[in-house]
Amino acid sequence: MNTPAPAGIDEVMLNFSPTSLQILNAVLAVVMFSIAIDLKPDDFKKLVRAPRPLLTGLFSQFIVLPVLTFCMILITQPQPSIALGLILVAACPGGNISNFITHRAGGNSALSVSMTAFATVGAIVLTPFNIALWGSLYAPTREILRKTSIDPVSVAITVGVMLVLPLILGVALNTKRPDITARMRTPMQYLSMGIFVAFVVLALAANWALFLQFAGAVAALVLLHNALAFSGGYATASLMRLSAFDRRAIMIETGIQNSGLGLILIFGFFSGLGGMAVVAAFWGIWHAISGIVLAGYLARTRVAH
Most exposed of 3, 30, 217, 302 (fewest Cβ within 10 Å)? Predict the structure, then answer.
C-alpha cells in the first residue's frame, strides 16, 4: 500500500532563515535549562542504584520506537521524505512537555525528568545513529541520505551544544543555589513553554500555505505513529513488570518526542525538506494534544507511588 501524498512533497523546501534557526536553538536551550533546574546529582545516583525503570524507558525510546516506526513505514510505504521525517522524529529524545504531561497524568515525574536528561545526553550518539541506520535500511530514504551526506559528528555537536550544555548548567545551578532555582522553577517552565509554542507558530506562519497543502498527506501517519509510540512505551514497561506509576512515565516519555530538535536537524541538515518538515511540525502540534488528553484520562485514576 502506498500512502498518497501531493506531488512535489519530496522536492519542496520550506523557508527557514539562518537567524530563525539560531533563535530556535536558543529557545530549545532555554526549555532544556528549565527542565534541568529540577535535577540534582542525587537524582541520578538513585537511578544508578535502581536502574531498571530508567533502562526500560531508554530502551523503549531509542530501540522499540525506531523499530515500530520502521515496521510502520514498510507497511504503509509513504513518500520518501515523509518516511525519513517519521524516522527522524523517532530518533529524537523525549520532548520538553513530557515532564509536565507525566505530572498531570499521575505518573513518576522524577523518572520522566531523569529519562529526558539521560535521553538527551544519549541523543548525542543515538539520534544520528538511528537516523543513519533506519534511513539506510529503506531504499527510498537511503537515497535522500546519500544526497544529503549528513555528518553524524555535526548532528552530535548540534545536540550537545543545544541540549546537553543547558542540562549541565541547570543541574549545577540547582546544586549550588537551590534557593534561586526554587523561585524560578515554575515561572521558567511556563515561560519556556510559551516561548517555544509562540516561536513554532511564527515559524509555521512563514510556510503556512505549504504546511496546509501537505498536512493532509501526513496527518493519518502522524496520528498512527504517535499511537504506536504511546502503545510501545506502555507495552515495554508492562513486559518489564514495572509499576503503573513508572509505566505512565515511560509511555508518555516515548509518545512525546522532541519535535523542536527534529525541526532544527531538518532545517540545518536537510534544507527544510518538505515531507520531513511537515511531519515534525505536525508531530509538534499533535503530540501535545494527544498527551494532554491522555493525561486527563489517566488522572481520573490515581496509582500508588
Answer: 302
